[in-house]
Model the fold of this input.
Amino acid sequence: MPNITVFPDPDAFVHGAAEFVCGLAQAALAESGRFAVALAGGGTPRPVYALLATPAFADRIAWDKVHVFFGDERCVPPDDERSNFRMAREALFDHVPLPPANVHRIGGEDDPAQAARAYEQDMKLLFRTQAPPAFDLICLGLGEDGHTASLFPGTAGLREQERWVVSQYVKTMKTWRVTVTPVLINAARNVVFMVKGSGKAEILKRVLAGPYEPDVLPAQLVRPTSGRTSWLVDAAAGAAVR
Ligand code: 6PG
Done:
């Protein structure tokens, strides 16, 4: 059975998720002096990031030793309302002493393929490795179609075996995205899925308890080689997996 925590309500979920991230940050900082995290986009994590920005959480983290990346980005400018960077900046970066140089943004405004290459190069520079780097934490969401990051059903990124980051046109969304690949995700020390709301109950059950069909359910590709996957869900999303 997966490592899943079901919180009784959305507030408890947000608090639990913030505590989870903060706890891993403190552990990584104590162990290695750095916390390298990739944030999820979308709507679910926004209140979690906002809570992390409050003193009760932010004062426990040495932000100058935190490096923030993103699991994916929409190919839009950083001030676009669809930008995952903008969401995280408004909810978190603008409220904590995180050095701007420690925010590793995907160039949503750039050519998608070039942005993917530059982002992967940015990771190589920080981690100083040619092997997929072991993020301390990669945060992911779950779409109602089973996607995670921007690994959508039927897209080429699902089969990527070498690159850590790819760009792809997502037909169902009619938009270009840049996304980390399963190669990078599965090298992480910790992966956490944050899933909230009754709309996710069915897909969560299929991903966790249904047949393994990653082309249809890309979130099933998340199987860290030596890392740990945690599922944090509220009662509404977890209703079908109890
Ligand atoms: C994005 C995210 C995406 C998201 C899921 C769930 O860029 O939108 O990376 O993978 O996590 O679509 O989104 P919600 O949390 O808004 O339901």
